[in-house]
Design brief:
Four Helix Bundle (Hemerythrin (Met), subunit A), mainly alpha, 154 residues, single chain
Length: 154
């Protein structure tokens, strides 16, 4: 069986997990834009102060830090620091031919940890809560990477 085909249930699991994480990354970017528009602040570049269809009344204070907007921006940056490693390593992991149960635990464990991490960040939970959820996702990717190395080195 081709490991990267719809006949492989592990690849299907990866496809689902990867698609959810890609939607998460893209949606977080849109959430940041929504928060910028809602608060009329949180812009980051001086050229954002040009008059336009959306920003009809640009003001210097729109460039000031706004935690409501910046929190979403930090969440997006955090996703961009973590999810690509999962996407790459997860695909390599599929090729190793793990059991369906192991793949489900690792793939959905990562997705769950990242989604709960987003809720924790959005609701201003402590660093310890967020770090715990980050650690779960990070350890999952590290486990997959070690299993990929073990497979590749035979």
């Amino acid at each position: 069986m081709d490991m990267l085909s719809a006949e492989n249930p592990i690849f299907i699991t990866y496809m689902i997990a990867a698609a959810i994480m890609i939607i998460k990354i893209m949606a977080q970017g849109w959430m940041t834009v929504y928060r910028m528009l809602k608060s009329d602040s949180g812009l980051v570049s001086p050229e954002d102060l040009q008059v336009g269809l959306i920003n009809r009344n640009p003001r210097a204070e729109q460039l000031g830090l706004n935690d409501y907007v910046d929190r979403s921006r930090r969440m997006h940056r955090n996703d961009l620091e973590n999810i690509p490693a999962f996407l790459a390593c997860g695909l390599l992991f599929v090729v190793t031919g793990p059991t369906v149960m192991l793949a489900n635990i690792l793939f959905y464990g990562f997705v769950g940890a990242r989604l709960i991490h987003a809720v924790a960040y959005a609701t201003k939970q402590s660093h310890e809560v967020r770090a715990t959820l980050y650690t779960i996702g990070s350890v999952i990717v590290i486990i997959m990477a070690i299993l990929v190395l073990k497979f590749a080195l035979g």
